[in-house]
Amino acid sequence: MKRTTFLLCLLCAFCMQALAAVEHNYKQQPQKQTIKVGTATREMLVYVPADLPEKAPMVISMHGASQDANYQMNQTHWNEVADTAKILVVYPQGNGNFWDISGSGDVKFIETIMKTMQKKYHVDKNRIYISGFSMGGMMTYHCMTKLGSVVAAFGPVSGIPVDYRDPVVVRKVPIMHIHGTGDDVVKWGGDPNHAAGGYGRIDDYVKKWAAAEGCDVEHPEVIRPYPETSDHAAATRTRYINKEDNIEVTLIALDGKGHWHSDDPNVVYSTRELWNFFKQYKLDLPEDVKPEEAAGDVVFHDNWEDEVVNVCEGVPAGWKRENSMNDGSRNDVKENGAANTGGARIKDFVAGGDFNTGFYFSARDFDQCKLSYGSFDNHRLHLTPGKYQLSFNSIFWNDGSENGAVTFDACITGISDKKVVLLEQNLESEGNLKENSNQVVKGSLAHLANFSIEKEGDYELYFLMSASWAAVVLGNVKIRKADTSTGITDRTADAFGKGTVMTYNLAGQRISGQTKGLVIEQIQFANGKKVSRKVIKK
Known about the structure:
The protein has helices at 3-15, 69-76, 78-85, 105-121, 135-147, 202-212, 270-278; strands at 31-37, 40-47, 58-62, 88-92, 128-133, 153-157, 175-180, 221-226, 235-242, 247-254, 296-302, 319-324, 331-335, 344-348, 357-361, 364-373, 381-383, 386-397, 408-414, 420-427, 430-433, 445-453, 457-468, 471-482, 499-504, 510-511, 517-525, 530-537. It is of the alpha+beta class. It is elongated, with a radius of gyration of 26 Å.
């Protein structure tokens, strides 16, 4: 983060109105949850209304500088909207109560939230919306430039990019910006003397975005006073409309209001304005295509059926189990055939289930457990360039000390260069085995993950889980070098915005992505690679 960016963040923090956090009687209790983003553990508050339907919308709401997720929840009242509209709301927690509004760290955090909530609560990936207050509004604009292709609409409140950069349009996105004309932090009239190089008027900046998105900026629809139905209306709504792409960029200016998220029912209730705006918009992303089991040569397979299977005996040859504390205070390693009394062991089950022999691993009273293969001589995982598929089954084991399933990560990295060639995070496990090895494994979850190897060498396969006395049992772990005829291809429709999608008709003319019929989609990646495919827009 630039020094000037940090200075502005501090300014926002010191000038923020100290509104007291108000307790609300929501129908459900918000849940504090954590997710893994790379090697970091990030926090968030999640509000799940009662009877949340399948394919529900989701709103991600980001707090201001020096505030936190709980503060954002209590000042925005999104939970009240969620109870009636049946939407999932996530309040991410910024590191140190700030956001990385110029780098990629927090963008990855938001990406991971989107992916995780789609898996965990089956939210509709076509109806995901992002909003934020103050520095969270700055972060909202930052997300527009990175995640515009996979977020249906954006709602920044009292925040603009600190360096007043020109708009970067990934996709023409709907925007509702709400701002007080009396804001003395992110000033409505701009600040030409600001340390970041100065910035202009808020209304000029929003108009700038509208122009970049193809809206008619010369003939906006101006509603004043707004709302028209209120006797106390003291706001102006300016709508810039792009009729061709059916989107709008709209600005609600709150007369004389300062740096705050308005919840004044007599003027403008910011959250309800945002939801009424968001719910008009929905993406048309292609359905997720689940990997199919590949055909090709198996280069690694371990089902442990020939291993010693007594509960108190060892980690099999070639494998290592390492339980550790994040602060380095404790570390316990069992490896390559060593005896082991807990944390990892082979389990034998009754034949005829999803797998006969499984590898049990658990963090126990440590912060994490890493189960790995490939670091020992005579047990190397040597891979040559080509396309591969990792497959395995997992089932959840509850020893009775705690409830609820655990999640885990699967990863493959180079031994010498530590380059990550496969990373699957927050994997789920099904079923619920009890402390009884003489049972049939039914209801395990099958995992298939495709990856590519560019450089021949030795690689490490590992599984990673966080603190829990519950466990995951892995079965039938296999790596197959795929025959190219199996359909293992590059991820051309990247679900999280790593490629820019352009749409053409069959004559090769670029057209709107909303056009119906058979079209050609071209995905251009950051490395310059282009991939095209024919799709049907419904």
